[in-house]
């Protein structure tokens, strides 16, 4: 009996000692696992702090395109990729009215609640307030946006003709900046890091990109509208977009610490580019 009590006492002492000892590098191992799981933004674990593209990628991570459709760069729906900035005769742009405004008709699903509608309309207003683009409820127009809470956040690129779906899933896509991002796709804009001149401003770290998503980082032949590269564009990927192991996939240059992407809505340069593309300020 005595020997049993002594043995239990020794075991208790060893367990207590082991529990109180610091575990070297345990935090580092844990952070590594969290970092690996997050994939899209290693600097912003808080959902409220993630930039727009991080939010979209989180929602679209398991997105499967409906039959007959494909998704490019994470959230552009099409059977092929195109940029309205370069489409022949500007046939991909929404038409400009004689009063100088560009009216984009839309219908919005009745499935959305009041707060969802406010969020979506705020995304519209953030574009309309600084441009000649006006989103208007559809009456009889043949071409219009059909805003639906489909699975994920995505849009077609430019005007496709007829009814074109723009998906804003609720609640995952219910951020005005996400709505603005998808509306800018619908107006004809690709992601900022897809610009033809991007290699002057960023370095793509190809080895850090998940192999199945390398095509998301290809450049497009774009008319860049004589506008500066915009690190803070609502259309810019985050620093860790599609990262395989938590390492950065995009590094700004010459200053690698320049923040890229944001979460509030269109930047001043985003609005400027819309105005240039749609010739805002001059009537036909």
From TrEMBL:
Coiled-coil portions: none
Keyword Hydrolase: yes
Enzyme Commission number: 3.4.24.-
Residues reported in the UniProt entry to bind Zn(2+): 181, 185, 191
Domain of life: Eukaryota
InterPro entries: MetalloPept_cat_dom_sf, Peptidase_M12A, Peptidase_Metallo, ZnMP_hatching_enz
Leader sequence residues: 1-20
Keyword Hydrolase carried by entry: yes
Keywords: Disulfide bond, Hydrolase, Metal-binding, Metalloprotease, Protease, Signal, Zinc
GO terms of biological process kind: proteolysis
Active site: 182
Cofactor binding: number and manner: Binds 1 zinc ion per subunit.
Every Peptidase M12A domain range: 83-281
Reported cofactor(s): Zn(2+)
GO MF assignments: metalloendopeptidase activity; zinc ion binding
Entry-linked SMART domains: ZnMc
The protein's name: Metalloendopeptidase
Annotated source species: Scomber scombrus
Native organism taxonomy: Eukaryota, Metazoa, Chordata, Craniata, Vertebrata
